[in-house]
Specification:
Layout lengths: L2 H79 L3 H112 L1 H10 L9 H14 L1
Helix pairs in contact: 1-2
């Protein structure tokens, strides 16, 4: 392998390692951002609670002022009908003051209502985004775990296949050696037979020259007749 190829391979390994570290760091960053977002949302919920409480107080003041306006308006009319003009004027002046206060409180109430409505909408969107981010992070982590498990299983499977192939190769070599040894033993037995003369005896018997060899049917019949005549 050339130095250029070796250098390219090394750079590829370094890049893969750098990317793996960067990916792992990215997940940590997302986790941290998710925790911070949840903390901010909790603070937003607390602020929303405070605004809603102030809105309720403003609503109570508005209702109270309206009731007072109705009451003093009725008092002004009654005093005027009874001929007590001074008391009627005082009640009318009180109604005027209450209406000014009511206008101020209504303005505050409208501000609280708008803030509450806007904050609720923004919080709802933020919570949706946080849930979506949390779901994606969980999915990424789960996929990463599954893929790591698959890589581990594949590696073990490849290792097992390699070991099995090595074992089968060993068996083939053993069988080949056993067959070679059997052939050598047969050759040795054949050589020993020739050296002891047993091979020659077997040839003579097959030719019918020695006892125990093969005999033709005509020779056998002649032998039987000769034995009968002797008897």
């Amino acid at each position: 392998m050339s130095l250029r190829k070796i250098w390219t391979a090394l750079k590829g390994a370094v890049n893969e390692g750098t990317e793996a570290v960067a990916d792992s760091q990215s997940i940590r960053i997302l986790d941290q951002e998710l925790r911070e977002a949840k903390t901010e949302l909790k603070a937003c919920d607390e602020n929303l609670t405070k605004i809603m409480a102030k809105r309720k107080l403003a609503e109570g003041k508005v209702e109270s002022l309206r009731a007072d306006i109705e009451t003093y308006s009725a008092h002004a009319v009654n005093a005027s009908e009874k001929g007590d003009n001074n008391l009627a004027l005082e009640c009318a002046e009180r109604v005027s003051e209450l209406e000014t206060q009511l206008q101020t409180e209504r303005s505050l109430l409208d501000g609280f209502l708008n803030s509450e409505r806007s904050l609720k909408g923004n919080i709802a969107k933020a919570k949706t985004n946080v849930r979506r981010m949390e779901q994606q992070i969980d999915q990424i982590k789960a996929t990463e775990s599954v893929q790591k498990a698959q890589v581990a299983v594949s590696s073990r499977h490849l290792g097992a296949n390699s070991r099995i192939k090595t074992a089968l190769d060993s068996l083939d070599r053993i069988k080949s050696k056993q067959q070679e040894r059997a052939a050598e033993l047969e050759a040795a037995e054949e050589l020993a037979s020739e050296e002891s003369g047993s091979s020659l005896d077997a040839k003579l018997k097959a030719a019918g020259i020695q006892p125990g060899g093969q005999v033709s049917s005509s020779d056998k019949l002649a032998q039987l007749l000769a034995n009968r005549e002797k008897a």
